[in-house]
Amino acid sequence: MKVTGGQFFWTLQPARVPAGSRVRFDVTSIDVNHGFGLYDPHGHLIGSVQAMPGYHNQLDLTLDEPGVYLIRCFEFCGLSHSTMMSSLLVRRR
Questions:
Q1: Are 12 and 88 in contact (CB under 8 A)?
Q2: pTM of the entire predicted model
Q3: How many domains does the chain have?
Q4: Cβ contacts of residue 39 below 8 Å, gap of 6+?
Q5: Hey, CA dihedral for 39, 45, 47, 48, is it positive or negative?
Q6: What is the pLDDT along the chain (93 residues), one digit of tens a residue?
Q7: CATH assignment at residue 47
Q8: Alpha-carbon span 7 to 32, nearest angstrom
Q9: How many CB atoms lie within 10 A of CB 7?
């Protein structure tokens, strides 16, 4: 899955996956450093990796539970950092 961070958004391709999928997040940034943090449907942090311009960092996770997974930025990246959120839908098989 391709993940790109920018001030102050995340883009994901694709934005949904089936439950039980092993997902490799290929994470980068188009501007400044960001911290990609993924939370399960219960709000528990299940993985994080840096998003940096010019680099592709990877995070491998198996997403077993269906639901909406929240993505937040872990690295202060500017005035609207606190609103930098997105989500990933993990759907039932």
A1: yes
A2: 0.94
A3: 1
A4: 45, 46, 69, 70, 71, 72
A5: positive
A6: 999 999 999 999 999 999 999 999 999 999 999 999 999 999 999 999 999 999 999 999 999 999 999 999 999 999 999 999 999 999 997
A7: 2.60.40.420
A8: 8
A9: 16
